[in-house]
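During the reporting period the student researcher (J.K.) took over the structure-prediction task from the postdoctoral fellow and processed the backlog of single-chain submissions. One of the processed entries is reproduced below for the supervisory committee.
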Amino acid sequence: MIRVTQGFQLLTREAIDNRIVMTKAEMLAAKDNQMPDNYFCICKDDNLIYVYSKSATPNAETGKFRVYNPATIQNITIDGQLLPIENLTVDIPLSVVNGYYYEGEFYADSNHREKYVGFTWKMYIDIPTSMVYVYTGSGYRTVSVPVPFATDSIPGISKLYGTPGNNSDGSIRQDVITLELNKKFEIEHGEDETLILYSNENS
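J.K. obtained the following structure tokens:
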């Protein structure tokens, strides 16, 4: 061990220790009996810092040297919103928002006074229609397929009735049965409140 009391003034381009600057091949070939328990070097191949540990399990590329990465993430930002990271857990705000879509904007209230700020990583559900929207960065667009009202050729939304009547906007026209029965029979009340049925033989 050489003891010095002053710094060195180097007049050479060589590193003071040939182990400080190494290629990956040189790291792989490093001999344990010529290395301290822990050391470091700068890689000639990628200019990254590598750390040597005698207790490390060697790999096929750099032996017992491992690339040193001191970076720790303190927070992340999504669409301008700062999200702190604690214990490797990111507290991401609610990603599904219920509100009211009105004239190209989303609002928290049905009176359209409190407008939401659009974020591309959120989904927005319009409460009155249950339609799902996403924010594209410049506006909202729906990702739902609207269900049409049913017709005689298009399946879709229709009404079902549970009582007799003459409505015609259900999935089966409510007056169809009534009209067909009227072709077959005529019904009237008798004097004693009984029902009298007459058959229409010509129908």
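The committee noted the following: The helical segments are 24-29, 174-184.
J.K. will present the remaining backlog at the next meeting.
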